[in-house]
Design goal:
- By secondary structure, the protein is an alpha/beta fold.
- The protein is built from 10 helices and 14 strands.
- The longest helix is centred in the middle third of the chain and has 16 residues.
- The radius of gyration is 24 Å and the shape is elongated.
- It holds the Pfam family ABC_tran.
């Protein structure tokens, strides 16, 4: 018997008074204990979707359940299962870290549990700063306080809206480790991010949203296998000024220094054409010194989905 999704979104529509439709019939199931990355360019509907699931925004139509509780008909029960780390840092600057986290727990009507909160602060490398005022913390540490607040009431589902925006690479990797530990403890995590490598590093599944619609939801590895291209780099013993006419059918690119040829092919294809290509390269009088292959990154796949025909950097 298949386990019920912990979050179920059905035909969700959100239209603002201006007539702008931020969500257009979104349906999405989120499994218990998974990390799902929600990718999309600015204005795609990521934050609106999270806000609606969390009950901050009210949908125009459609339904959302969390742990079986409808977010409109049974808001308190649904919201008690959710932790939200917002994109913007909004904290009381002159309050101590530990009091900030205690207060968030109390908002959900839970009794004090300093042992749990101390352990939580240790996991987030905040325990030595528990008695410091928030204003004294770095931006990265403030982000950790936001996560501690979101986890203070022991939610089953954690939403991270751009959790590593504006933090340095080293701290970003620390955050990935925190997320991995939370998932190992059974927390379901929904992550929005502009850093595509973040999703590639830690997500189990990828959901791509654009213009208020879900374009796909798929296992990350399967997606990269299905949609990714491979690139074969053929290093040449001697540089060439131009690609021989006999190799034109392969659509090869020449490296700027002329010392390599690049061949792109579908990784799932039954026949890649590589064997024939290598034979034809030799027949053209070129001598190979090395071969290297590279798989398309998730970023390249994402760009192709949200900006058809585009290449290069991801949509901002």
């Amino acid at each position: 018997m298949t386990e019920e999704p912990i979050v179920r979104v059905r035909d969700l529509v959100k239209t603002y008074k201006t007539g702008f439709m931020a969500l257009n019939g979104v349906s999405l199931d989120i499994r218990k204990g998974e990390i799902i990355a929600l990718l999309g360019p600015n204005g795609a509907g990521k934050t609106t979707l999270i806000s609606t699931i969390c009950g901050i925004a009210v949908q125009t139509s459609g339904s959302v359940t969390v742990g079986g509780h409808d977010t409109r008909q049974d808001y308190r029960a649904a919201r008690s299962l959710i932790g939200l780390v917002p994109q913007e840092i909004s904290l009381e600057p002159f309050e101590k870290v530990v009091n900030t986290v205690r207060f968030s727990r109390g908002l959900f009507g839970l009794p004090p549990d300093d042992a749990y909160l101390d352990d939580l602060l240790r996991q987030l490398s905040l325990h030595d700063k528990r008695d410091q005022k928030v204003v004294t913390l770095s931006g990265g540490m403030k982000r950790r306080v936001l996560i501690a607040k979101a986890l203070s009431h022991e939610p089953q589902v954690l939403f991270l809206d751009e959790p590593t925006a504006g933090v340095d690479v080293e701290l970003r990797k620390d955050m990935w480790e925190i997320v991995a530990r939370l998932r190992a403890a059974g927390t379901t995590i929904i992550l929005t991010t502009h850093y595509i490598e973040e999703a590639e590093a830690i997500a189990d599944r990828i959901a791509v949203i654009n213009k208020g619609e879900i374009l796909l939801v798929e296992d990350k590895t399967a997606l990269m296998t299905r949609m990714g291209q491979k690139e074969l780099r053929i290093e040449l013993a001697e540089p060439v000024d131009a690609i021989p006419e006999s190799l034109a059918p392969y659509g090869l690119d020449r490296a700027p220094d002329g010392r390599a040829l690049l061949y792109r092919y579908e990784s799932t294809g039954e026949r890649t054409g590589i064997t024939r290509l290598l034979n034809d390269i030799q027949a053209a009088g070129l001598h190979m010194s090395d071969l290297q292959t590279r798989q398309s990154s998730l970023e390249e796949i994402f760009v192709g989905l949200v900006t058809p025909g585009a290449s290069g950097k991801a949509a901002e």
